[in-house]
Structures are given as structure tokens and as C-alpha cells.
Amino acid sequence: MTVGDKSTGVATDGKLLKPSLDMNFSSISEAENYYKEYGMSLGFSTRRRSSYATARGPLITRVVFVCCREGVHKSKPSQDDQNDGKLKRKRNTSTMRTDCKAMLCIALDTELETWYVNKFIEDHNHGM
């Protein structure tokens, strides 16, 4: 990313800009690092949810980065303990998943060999 280039998300003063559909990145890792830094500056963590490849080969053409609170927790059914037939005691844990929809999706422009933002949702359903 170059400083002062809106297409890569860095303003002339060095601060990160909000992601927009006209941003371009030279690699997946550059986009991932940008979204991680952007998230940290606003108080949320990010992770890579999925990657999509072409049907004809292993070339990755789309990557989705999401808020770490994306998705919902799937509870597991209780199972009988093998030794004495009693139900196993469930651990008292909490989950951070809130089905947050915030995401950054990038796609590969095969002609220019650059990655561009093709979807950005900034709304979180939780406090930061």
C-alpha cells in the first residue's frame, strides 16, 4: 500500500481509510493485513472465513474476511458417559459469536492481476 492512495486505504496523513469498492490490493495478504489493522483501529478482530477457487483449477478468485463474532454457536447434544451411564456435565463457557454480518470480500481481477473489494458491510450487531 502506498501512502496517500485511496485505492489501497491509506490517507496522506497515514491513517487507515474506511474500506470502499474502489480499493485495490496487490495480494491476499495485503488485503488481510489492511482489514486486520482497520478492525483493530475500531476495536474488533477479524478472521478469514472462506476462499473460493475456479472450477478449472486451484486459482483462488475470491476471499471473504469477517468480524470474529460472525456466525452462531452450535451447541452439541449431551452424550452418556461411557463408564457409569450418567450424563456428562456441561462446561460453563460462553461464546463470542453473535451472527455479526460485518465483512470485507475481495475478488481477483485476472487481467490486471490485482485484488479489488467487491463487497463491504460495516454494520456490527455488537458493541466494540
From TrEMBL:
It comes from the Eukaryota. Residues 33-127 form the FAR1 domain. InterPro entries: FAR1_DNA_bnd_dom. Residues 73-96 are annotated as: Disordered. Residues 73-86 have a biased composition (Basic and acidic residues). This is FAR1 domain-containing protein. It comes from Papaver atlanticum.
